[in-house]
Design brief:
Uridine Diphospho-n-acetylenolpyruvylglucosamine Reductase, domain 2, Uridine Diphospho-n-acetylenolpyruvylglucosamine Reductase, domain 3, seven-stranded antiparallel sheet, 16 helices
Length: 465
Amino acid sequence: MDKEQLNALKELMGDRVILENDSLDAHRFDRWCIKHYRAWQQQTINRPACIVRPIQTKDVQTLMAFAHKQKLSVVPFGLGSGVCGGIEPSDQDILIDMGGMNKICEINSVDLLATFESGVNGLIAEEAVAKHDLTIGHWPQSIAISSVGGWVSTRASGQFSTAYGNIEDIIYAIEVVLPHGELVTLGKAPRAAAGPDLRHLFIGAEGTMGIVTKVTLSLRRQPEKRAFSVFHTPSMQQGFSLQRNIVQADWRPPVMRQYDASEVARLFPDFTLNNNGLLLLVHEGPASRVDAEVEAIAKLANKLGINSIDTTAAEQWLERRNHVPEWQDLFNMGWIADTIEISGTWQQIDVIYDNVIAALKTVPFIINASAHSSHVYRSGINLYFTFACKPENVADMEALYFECWDKAINATADAGGGIAHHHGVGRLRKPYLGRELGEGGVNLLRSIKHAIDPQGLMNPGNLIP
């Protein structure tokens, strides 16, 4: 981006263009561990040429039309909570900060719909609908630091998804500005058979196809009752079996989280027993259904020889569930760590768990390799692996980090599993996308990208190999 182009942009967008050094530095990357490690190591990290902060959809259209004409790349930025490296602007890129588009447009308690501009903070969105005795039902761990538009762009999932669905199940309509500035609104009815569902071109596209400016979400009534169940699981396999029996019997506790023994010792030390794991459930809904569900699941567990325990662990999880350490705190202790969420069918998941844990334990200086499940489906389940390495030399952290990811992703794919459940792809998983989509699928994705963004101006280098 040359000086003449920058001056033209400033003339066009006025004070929407931001050039202050602190702002440019703050928008160099998202919450991807490896970028924070490099910053901690005081490595040079590119920052954008400038930031544009729109406050209405017309601002986005104006910017995109300008960028298209000038052949300038644009990197969309929500609230920066992504963990897979979706934000990596070069010093030639315009970064469009959507945080200024934060209006709550409408809450409709008859049709159970709410429309938000894409920069609305997720927790603010939930609190707004809660005032109407409603809920979005989407509770990612990042809810207080993520945006509604970011949920769409990363194809996010929330902690209560087993009953309420993932973000693609909650989205009713989206408004998108295309790379050349045209505005489209996709979704206008509870269900449509008007050709392919074009919303899905942008759900999970991570800013590579266009810029989401508004989102309409389908809401639910606040639940009448909440209850908890907790079980000691003698093995991961037995816990998986209980979870499969629960969902295939059509019970839908919004939260079903199963921790292996290593994670129980680390996260729930007061509830360790004979190397058992833990299965935590949260039940919500009409009181009679909640009561029936709690009783039925207890009977299923009893048939499988799995014992229920006091519900305190689940109550503690609910209270503490979004408390996580900052990356720098771990680096200062000499650790490099991350989580890797994948999924598989019920017939695959035992092998995936065993093989990934075994593969991670071969990495030098590994001090933790563990897992829990957090999202359950009739046909399968996800796993959320946690690894940590503590090398003798902090300069070795980055190589160990990528070795852990490589071993975990390839062990998952070798067993037939899916390599990304809810954090998206970014630059971290991009090299492995062929293992998920196959060569034909990657070529199809490239073709769609070229059709929508033939100049390749939208978030270049992200998502697509």
